[in-house]
């Protein structure tokens, strides 16, 4: 030992060397050089933390002494004393160790590892070490039993002190800024391990534990320089919160008592506060805190390769989890702020992995569709569909995107091809959408209403499930009107006539249209054999014959005026002659059909581009670096989702 000390002691002051020698002699005077297996277990497992085993097997030298703190050196002394001389004065001197620390060797080892990950800035290792989803493996199970024994409920302060003493790297922090929020997260995490259960009947309790843990994780994420180490943990926990919130929303019997007691699953509401915050909404709001933290990170940016770094890596993956919850529980109005924030503050979407791009564009497309902005919806959904890999494992995702993409295009007058409907992800979609397309092409008002009838439509339940039935009914009916007017014009319209120096416009007698609309509406009424009468009104005679409900000349004129106003017909109504006259025939080379009935897709698409004046930009879809989607701010550059006009609406 003296030989070993020679190099080290050359750098020590005499007094320091004397103290070191005295301490080592004192430590090495107890017990044998090595321990038996039984003694190893008693000391290393029951008394001293496992990381001290190396020092228990050998006499202390200046090198090993410098590697451990005086506290750990005293622990070695105590361990040897109680093992070999339990009645000695030295053993009595150290008879008051912290019992929780001494009784939890696995927990101590776990915290040492976590501290090492923080010290090494190893976020992957930290995420792997923080297991979240039960059931846990046997090693974690043994540690959980230690926690339950040493730190029962109510001892959270002691558990936080234990974490604070073990996580020195977090206490020291970075650049003089301690990472206190991480210590609190770890204490909360240990409490989560202690209390969580895989029992399905306790899912609500699990949700509450995960929500509290998510909030602690969000706080730890907000540290300016070390917070990025928590990003994988935040994302992993957020996925569990998302999955559990959606699962509970689908099983209302598990949260029925919350609704009965007025809890609503998440506070808020009541007589004074308006609508209650539902459990999924609360989950989305908790995740939104992490989203905002990632979005507002000023430290990280894009790498030289154009990829996000630091906390900005989490922007879209956390946003997608929030959107998944909101769309599942049908609270999509709350998604507006997410899209606006991303459009103004996020790096370009193209910088992120394809899976995140596809998912985000899918939800943005659905949001635009639900807000009746179908042209922009099809732009976004087409991009999501094109980027989604055509692999068997992606069929479900591609199918869901395709449903809204086809619906958006049909509303805009563009129908799916047979090639598209023959793809694996489109199996069965032809039976739902082709009858709508045929009804629009033929002007078959009766067939159109029958197929999209809420009560008797063959596929009405399917359309309602995807929340596209009302949009198809309301938006596509005007296209059926247009096709019906065109069919009647072909059969009974008067061609343009050249009378010397003037050209008389091609016209159509409105009475012919009245007859056509009446015939088709009568056919639709005949198919509706529902004679149900509410019992409260049974036998009441209102004196009506039903004739007043039939379409008349004024109704047809109103339909024509609407079609002309939307640009779907080109012409005017002669109220004196009660005729519809086509304009622009000469410009179309004498083709009255081409002049009077412009292509629907060109009309609605062009109107959308002109009305927005955005050059193809879609609010929420960040394509370029900089604020407001990368555009230069200026007059007319305020994008507000709540005020967007639906396609075809004037004013």
How is this structure best described in words?
The protein has helices at 2-9, 14-28, 37-45, 53-56, 62-67, 70-84, 89-93, 99-102, 105-119, 123-129, 138-150, 156-166, 168-172, 180-195, 203-221, 231-250, 256-260, 270-273, 279-295, 315-328, 336-345, 354-370, 374-387, 395-411, 418-421, 429-442, 445-451, 460-465, 469-492, 510-527, 553-565, 592-596, 600-612, and strands spanning 497-499, 502-504, 507-509, 571-574, 579-582. The protein has 651 residues and is mostly helical. It has a domain at 104-255 and 278-352. A hairpin with a 2-residue loop joins strand 1 (497-499) and strand 2. Helix 23 (374-387) packs antiparallel against helix 24 and helix 30 (510-527) packs across helix 31 (553-565). The longest helix is centred in the C-terminal third of the chain and has 24 residues, at 469-492. The chain is elongated. Residues 609-631 are annotated as: Disordered.
In terms of DSSP E residues, the strand content is under 5%
| Helix count, DSSP H or I runs of 4 or more residues | 33
Structural classification: mainly alpha
Order of strands side by side in the largest beta sheet? 3-5-4
Low-confidence stretches: 1-12, 30-50, 85-102, 265-274, 631-651
Name the assembly state: single chain
| Alpha-carbon distance between the two ends | 93 Å
Q: Give me the count of strands.
A: 5
Largest sheet entry: 3 strands, antiparallel
Q: Quick check: average pLDDT?
A: 81
What's the overall geometry? Answer: elongated
Helix content: 55-70%
Rg from Cα:
37 Å
């Amino acid at each position: 030992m003296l030989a070993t000390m020679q190099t080290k002691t050359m750098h020590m002051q005499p007094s320091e060397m004397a103290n070191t020698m005295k301490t080592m002699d004192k430590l090495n005077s107890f017990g044998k050089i090595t321990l038996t297996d039984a003694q190893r277990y008693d000391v290393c497992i029951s008394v001293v933390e496992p990381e001290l085993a190396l020092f228990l097997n050998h006499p202390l030298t200046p090198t090993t002494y410098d590697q451990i703190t005086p506290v750990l050196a005293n622990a070695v002394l105590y361990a040897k004393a109680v093992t070999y001389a339990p009645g000695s004065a030295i053993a009595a001197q150290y008879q008051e160790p912290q019992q929780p620390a001494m009784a939890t060797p696995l927990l101590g080892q776990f915290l040492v590892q976590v501290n090492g990950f923080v010290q090494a800035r190893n976020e992957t290792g930290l995420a792997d070490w923080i297991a979240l989803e039960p059931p846990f493996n046997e090693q974690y199970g043994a540690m959980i039993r230690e926690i339950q024994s040493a730190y029962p409920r109510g001892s959270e302060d002691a558990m936080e002190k234990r974490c604070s003493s073990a996580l020195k790297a977090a206490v020291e922090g970075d650049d003089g800024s301690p990472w206190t929020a991480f210590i609190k997260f770890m204490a909360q995490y240990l409490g989560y391990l202690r209390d969580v259960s895989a029992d399905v009947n306790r899912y609500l309790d699990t949700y509450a534990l995960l929500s509290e843990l998510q909030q602690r994780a969000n706080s730890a994420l907000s540290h300016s320089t070390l917070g990025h180490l928590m990003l994988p943990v935040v994302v992993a926990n957020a996925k569990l919160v998302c999955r559990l919130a959606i699962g509970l929303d689908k099983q209302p019997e598990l949260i029925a008592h919350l609704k009965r007691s007025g809890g609503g699953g998440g506070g808020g509401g009541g007589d004074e506060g308006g609508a209650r915050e539902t459990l999924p909404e609360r989950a989305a709001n908790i995740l939104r805190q992490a989203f905002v933290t990632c979005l507002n990170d000023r430290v990280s940016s894009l790498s030289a390769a154009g990829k996000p770094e630091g906390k900005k890596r989490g922007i879209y993956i956390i946003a997608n989890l929030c959107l998944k919850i909101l769309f599942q529980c049908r609270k999509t109005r709350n998604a507006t702020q997410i899209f606006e924030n991303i459009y103004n503050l996020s790096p370009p979407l193209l910088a992120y992995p394809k899976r995140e791009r596809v998912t985000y564009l899918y939800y943005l497309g659905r949001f635009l569709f639900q807000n009746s902005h179908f042209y922009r919806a099809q732009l976004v959904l087409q991009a999501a569909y094109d980027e989604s890999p055509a692999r068997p494992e992606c069929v479900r995702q591609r199918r869901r995107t395709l449903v809204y993409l086809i619906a958006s295009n049909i509303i805009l007058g563009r129908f799916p091809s047979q090639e598209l409907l023959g793809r694996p992800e489109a199996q069965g979609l032809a039976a739902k959408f082709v009858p709508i397309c045929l009804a629009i092409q033929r002007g078959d008002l009766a067939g159109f209403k029958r197929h999209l009838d809420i009560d008797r439509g063959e596929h009405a339940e399917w359309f309602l499930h995807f929340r596209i039935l009302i949009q198809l009914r309301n938006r596509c009916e005007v296209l059926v009107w247009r096709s019906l007017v065109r069919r009647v014009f072909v059969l009974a319209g008067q061609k343009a006539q050249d009378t010397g120096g003037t050209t008389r416009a091609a016209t159509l007698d409105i009475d012919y249209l009245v007859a056509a609309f009446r015939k088709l509406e009568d056919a639709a009424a005949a198919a509706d054999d529902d004679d149900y009468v509410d019992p409260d009104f049974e036998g009441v005679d209102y004196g009506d014959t039903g004739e007043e409900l039939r379409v008349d000349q004024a109704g047809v004129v109103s339909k024509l005026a609407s079609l002309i106003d939307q640009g779907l017909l080109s012409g005017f109504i002669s109220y004196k002659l009660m005729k519809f006259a086509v304009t622009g025939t000469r410009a179309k080379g004498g083709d009255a059909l081409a002049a009077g009935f412009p292509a629907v897709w060109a009309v609605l698409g062009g109107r959308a581009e002109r009305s927005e004046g955005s050059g193809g930009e879609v609010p929420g879809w960040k394509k370029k670096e900089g604020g407001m989607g990368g555009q230069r701010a200026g007059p007319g550059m305020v994008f507000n989702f709540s005020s967007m006009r639906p396609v075809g609406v004037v004013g």
